[in-house]
Amino acid sequence: MRTPPNERLTPDIAEDAEARSTSGPGKSCANRKEPERRCILTGDHAARASLMRLAISPDGDVLPDPGAKAPGRGAWIGVSRTQLEEALAKGHLKGALARAFKGAPLRIPDQLPQMIEDALTRSFRDRLGLEMRAGHLLLGSDRIAEQARAGRVALLMHASDASEDGRKKLDQAWRVGREAEGSGERGTVLPLDRAALSVALGRDNVVHLGVSGQGGGRMAAQRVASSLVRLQKFIGTETREESDGCAQDAHADTTN
């Protein structure tokens, strides 16, 4: 990624440092202001973690930067793939990017929407892999069910091709452990099938997985939920119920 002319090297990092300085090391996480960014297409402000950052490559291509690590000025979007494709077709994206990058020469790849979806999917798979290596994930239906009934599962997820019967059994165990019987709460059906999950986690036939609600698993649930909701929002599979549920579960597990 290159830095457009007359721009500071890392404005996003500078803004984050300012946000951290206002919170102070002695204040609780609940009192810290989460950095926000403005979507260049809608004008709406949202938490940085829920948006996708775009940056310019050395060749002038606009590319997804899901980790928000590329140097230079970034442009943030918080729309779905369908909305992005419409903005691209109508020229709205080009105009918004020109303003965001202050007229710097840039080129928008025709396949940008697919590139963003691939980047978000890869980011989510990588997050699962990291939490797996850290010991925060639970695999195997019997183990998940046992831990779920004991109230030790913060987040329950199913592969897209998991059987309905298998999902229902674990969903019921999860509700029991959460003292939410009769609520209809269910685990999240992921936009990944068992083959993709198995590759991401280096295990065979991963159909269901849970995030532990014990110890470091509490923060792990928040990280996984954040990455998942961002992917769901872009590809258009996120429901309001799932978005609210993930956010509430992650918050509860970090405050209990």
TrEMBL record:
Pfam families: YlxR. Residues 37-105 form the YlxR domain. Signal peptide: none annotated. Residues 1-35 are annotated as: Disordered. InterPro entries: Ribosomal_eL30-like_sf, YlxR, YlxR-like_sf, YlxR_dom. PANTHER family: BLL0784 PROTEIN, YLXR DOMAIN-CONTAINING PROTEIN. This is Putative nucleic-acid-binding protein. It comes from Altererythrobacter epoxidivorans.
